[in-house]
Amino acid sequence: GRNWEGFSPDPVLTGIAMAETIKGTQDAGVVACAKHFIGNEQEHFRQGPESAGFGFTISDAASSNIDDITMHELYLWPFADAI
C-alpha cells in the first residue's frame, strides 16, 4: 500500500506533520501538494491483470468502501490540516 508514505498511522500526528512540512516547503518558495489522497492504500494488485504471474487469482479491481465517520476521522483529517 501507500501507508509507508505517511508520517504516522495517527491521523492527528499525520495532519500536524503534513501541515508543517507543507508550510516549510512553501516558505522556501517551493509549491507543495498533499498527494495520494483519500483511500489510496492498495497500491499493488489493484487490478486483476497486475496479479498475473505472482500467484494471485484476483479477478476484480479492489474497492475501498469507507463509511462516513471513518472517512472524516481517519482519512480526511491530515488533508484538512494540510489545506
From TrEMBL:
Alphabetical GO biological process terms: glucan catabolic process
Database matches in Pfam families: Glyco_hydro_3
Enzyme class name: hydrolase
Signal sequence annotation: none
Keywords: Carbohydrate metabolism, Glycoprotein, Glycosidase, Hydrolase, Polysaccharide degradation
Catalytic activity from the UniProt record: Hydrolysis of terminal, non-reducing beta-D-glucosyl residues with release of beta-D-glucose
Coiled-coil region(s): none
Organism per entry: Lophodermium sp. ZY-2014
Lineage: Eukaryota, Fungi, Dikarya, Ascomycota, Pezizomycotina
Family of this protein: Belongs to the glycosyl hydrolase 3 family.
UniProt-recorded Gene Ontology molecular function terms: beta-glucosidase activity
Protein name (Swiss-Prot/TrEMBL): beta-glucosidase
Annotated TM spans: none
Domain Glycoside hydrolase family 3 N-terminal: 1-40
Gene3D superfamilies cross-referenced by the UniProt entry: Glycoside hydrolase, family 3, N-terminal domain (3.20.20.300)
Pathway this chain belongs to: Glycan metabolism; cellulose degradation
Documented EC number(s): 3.2.1.21
